[in-house]
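Protocol step 4 of 5: obtain the predicted structure for the target chain.
Materials: sequence only (see below). No template structures provided, no constraints applied. The aim of this step is simply to have a reference model before the mutagenesis design in step 5. Sequence pasted as it appears in the construct record:
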Amino acid sequence: MTPTDAQTFWISEKIPNDQLLLYCFEGQSESIEDIRRSLLERASTMPDLCVRIREVPWHLDYPLWEPMPVTQALVVTHKLAEPSWDQCINSIEVLLENHVNPRATPWLLHLFEGVRGAPRCDGPALIAVLQVAHSLADGKRATAIARTLFSQDGPPPEMIDTRSSSSAEILTRAALRLPGQIFRLFRDGRAGHQAQLQLEADTLAEVVAPQAPNRTKVRSNIAPDPHRLVRMVVRDAADFRADGVSVTVGAMTAISIAMTNYLAAADGSVPPELGAEVTIAKDGKPKSRNHFRNAGVGLFPEVPDLRERAERIKESMAERRARAAHPSSAASDLAMEAVPGPLIRWGVQQYDFTAIPEAVTGNTVVSSVARGAADLMLGGGVVRFTAGFPSLSPVMSLTHGVHGIGDTVTISITTSPSSIPDIDLYEKLMHDAIDEVRSAFS
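Step 4 output (structure tokens):
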């Protein structure tokens, strides 16, 4: 594993961070067993779905990806007591409360058939939920995995090597790697320090924007309780777009309205520095399965004109991307790659993930991924929409996924009763906010 992915894995043992990718298909014409068998055959040809994590003895190096056979247990069919969309949502909430063990398997695929009342569906729907450990894939890579799994034109079959290294072979490789790692640690660590000094100088010279300000905590920053609540707001992609405004910016504008209205009603005040922690893809070719950064972006609730608010959000996003693209970021990544695995693991083990800071990077998380054309099919059914649910953490109890496929975009809401007990009200506020955005942009 790369250092970034290993760190993600070790953090997941403190704060679970599974991704759930939901795809809704209408028009199922094959039996669920035939569908299950076909999916297992397809998965067995996909290298990303034929590996699991194996830790090195005594944690002397980074964990390894070792071959894993695809078994029937990896595709799970669920029987709902009542095949309704509401019952399906309840089951998804339960999935969010249970996590994969990537040492056994880093993924599961859940199937719910005959679901009635799903958005954009006139008849019963087949709901497929791909549960993926974040150490296996970030949002973009997980989307590519799902597209391959549900695509009509799959990749040519691949022979997957199921052999595994012995502990002696693993330890020998770790010993051979150590001298080079120590050399790189000093070399790349020094380069990273010099790049950080250059970033500070460029910030003072206003070549790049300063670091994003911290945000005042609100109710969405309290610790979530164990239960999860989710809702999905499925809309036309055109509801979010305008000249010069992307779907992501339009969605964040709607999120700013919904959060402002909810906080004002629930707590009587909204901090003007309200902001979101947004996932931003790194530049360049991915070296790790997780190829993104997090950045704080303003939501500007004090700006009444929604076109102007969207422009401010767009500018804030551009500033964060420009700062993330500074050479210091690449130098920092190189320095990270030089750190021996035991040191990174020790750092994760020592960090207190339950500590509550005075201020936060964002008051919600926004993860936005375009999932391509609406040409996916499963069991004869055609995809109608897709959704995703960014995980919660001790200081983040409200997240938003923004996922588009074809001409639809879904804003997925994930929270817990400790933060947003009346999620149906928040869902309505989100629909109303999107209506406001569409009206302002038209």
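Step 4 remarks: Residues 7-172 form a domain with the Chloramphenicol Acetyltransferase fold (CATH 3.30.559.10). DSSP finds ten helices and 16 strands in the chain.
Proceed to step 5.
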